[in-house]
Each structure stands twice: as C-alpha cells, then as structure tokens.
Design a protein that fits this description.
three-stranded antiparallel sheet, Endonuclease III, domain 1, 346 residues, elongated, Nucleoside Triphosphate Pyrophosphohydrolase, alpha+beta
Length: 346
C-alpha cells in the first residue's frame, strides 16, 4: 500500500529541477531572502490563464520592459496595452489587467491575503491562491490543470473532469505544507508540466512515484479521466476591409463586453449560422477568394473577406478610418488584414 505523498520529497526535487522562468524567484535565491515581486507573479498568472508557458515568456518580458511596475502599467494607454496583448487571446484578461493595475495603485500596493486579492478585477480563486502562495508564502492551495493531473494520478481519482474538480482540490489541500508553501505550489505545477505529463508520464524519475496509487494500479496514463467533449459549432461572418487612398483603413472598436471586447476589428454583421452582408461604406467590394479560419474556446469561425479601395471623401455608415498596425489587432482580425493587404494594389 502506498504512503501519502510527502511535500518534502517534492521540494527536494524542486530544489534541483525547478524551471527557470522569467517571473520566478529560484529556490536558491528564495533561500537567501530574495522576495518575489507580487506584480510579476500577478502579471504572469494572468497571462498564463488558458495559455502555455512557451507562449507567455516573450509577452511577459516585453510587458515588464515597457511597464516594469504596477504603477507604470496603471498609467499606460489602453490601446497600447491591448495592442501588446494581441496574440495571447481571451482579451477580457487584458481589460481586467488594466482595471486591476489601477485598483492596486489606488490601494498603494497589492493586498496580502487571498480574500483581499480576490476582490480585485480579474482575480478569481485560482489566481488569488497563486499570488498569496508564491508572492507571500502563505499556505494556500493552488490547483491548475497540471496539479489536477498530478492529484488524479497520485490519489487514483477516477471521477472524470470536470466533475472531479472539487475532490481534486480537496486532496490537493491535504498536501499543502506550512513550510515553503510558495515553492511547493510551483513545485507541484512543475511536476505536472515536466514529469507527470498528459501522455507518457516519466514515472521512473518522479519524486512521488512510490506513493502514486495510479502507478501502482498501472493506470496512470489514463488519468485524469474526462467526459467526452461536445463538438464545437461553426459560425460564419464577413469582414469588410476598406482602404482609403491615403492609406487609412476603416475599422471599429468592438464593444467592451463580449468576445474580443475593446479590441479593434473590421466592420461586419455578427457571426452566426450564416454570414450576413453588411457593407460599412458604399464601394466596389471584391472577394479575394480566401477564407479566414479561426478557433475560439467555444466555436470555430469561418470568416469571408471583402476588400475595397475607396476615395478620401468616402463616408462610412459605421467605423472610422484610421492608421492600422498589425500589432494593434487580435489574431483573427490580423489574419483578415493579411488577406486584404495581399489583395489590394499598392
């Protein structure tokens, strides 16, 4: 029979194998009194939501170079921040990033308890626990997808996700130590990311291999179990890209609420079961014959593109002519922009 996993074993492994991440204070530095920056911890955790470490590294480094403190971010231009965020997706996070930075500035710094952190815009139970543990070394239980996988295997929890989430959080809490809880939180996430991986876990070098119930049963690769996924629906739309003779493009700001909220986009009707014609300005619209495809969390999008060159005195029904930088656009709008630039004469 397996014993309960020992946090000390995991911490000893982490001291030797911790990932080198730009937002992290290494266990060696932490041991000699280097304190994590709550701003860096918060920024990285917001960026990492629904995104991989590999995708976040460059964004984090760039943000810290542009806005090295929470006060600097709070004072930043909204459009500049949204533009720098483009490509990370889930744009509500970027809007809440600014709201949270400004709230923290008004408070004269990040709160130091989970409950107070959770009162801030864009900070939920997971992020508040992560900041409290990693930045302030409080014994909060941090459970992300990596931790869920580790717990499902170590405790052989066969209930499929998402139904298993409360049970996984409960058993994870039984392991959270009072000693070095911040390092432990990062250690168990590292374990899931590098050893206890979704496929072909490297059980032979896992510090908890002797205590893993699923490994003893030989079913570790099958956990965590998941309910069958519901197929994503497909939606259709038309993006209208008009370039004026002076090089300005017709664009519009999407509503703050909803998908791609607050981001620049191309005029057009909403996305639905069928594409709806809604040209924003009178023009000789052309179809370049290239369809933009993009996948969001809950649906696939097939976006037809229409392009037109218009005179400087063109009066649009909607939107505003303005200078456009590709970096100002979310990914799906940038894809349409690339199609339009290739279809219009220089």
């Amino acid at each position: 029979m397996c014993d309960a996993p020992k946090p000390a074993d995991l911490l000893a492994w982490y001291d030797r194998h911790a990932r080198d991440l730009p937002w992290r204070v290494s266990p060696a530095d932490r041991a000699v009194g280097v304190v994590p920056d709550p701003y860096a911890v918060w920024l990285s955790e917001i960026m990492l939501q629904q995104t991989t470490v590999a995708a976040v590294r460059d964004y984090f480094t760039r943000f810290m170079g542009l806005w090295p403190t929470v006060d600097a971010l709070a004072a930043a231009d909204d459009d500049r921040v949204m533009g720098e965020w483009a490509g990370l997706g889930y744009y509500a996070r970027a809007r809440n990033l600014l709201k949270c930075a400004r709230a923290v500035t008004e408070l004269d710094g990040f709160p130091k308890t989970r409950a107070e952190l959770e009162d801030l815009p864009g900070i939920g139970p997971y992020t508040s626990a992560a900041i409290a543990a990693i930045a302030y070394d409080l014994p909060e239980t941090v459970v992300d997808g990596n931790v869920e996988r580790v717990m499902a295997r170590v405790f052989q929890i066969e209930t499929p996700l998402p139904d298993a989430k409360p049970e996984l959080k409960r058993v994870a809490a039984t392991l959270t130590p009072d000693t070095r809880p911040g390092d432990y939180a990062q250690a168990v996430m590292d374990l899931g990311a590098t050893i206890c991986t979704p496929k072909s876990p490297a059980c032979g070098i896992c510090p908890w291999n002797r205590d893993c119930l699923a490994r003893t049963s030989g079913i570790q690769a099958t956990l965590p179990a998941r309910k069958p996924k519901t197929p994503k629906p497909t939606r259709y739309g038309i993006a209208y890209l008009a370039r004026r003779e002076d090089g300005m493009w017709l664009a519009e700001r999407r509503p703050d609420s909803g998908l791609l909220g607050g981001m620049l986009g191309w005029p057009g009707a909403g996305w639905g079961d069928v594409a709806t014609d809604a040209p924003p300005v009178t023009a000789d619209w052309r179809d370049p014959g290239v369809e933009v495809r993009h996948t969001f969390t809950h649906f696939h999008l097939k976006l037809s593109v229409r392009v037109a060159s218009v005179p400087t005195d063109a009066i649009p029904h909607t939107g505003v002519f303005q200078k456009i930088r590709p970096s100002d656009l979310p990914t799906v709008m940038r894809k349409a922009f690339d199609v339009a630039r290739g279809a219009l004469p220089d």
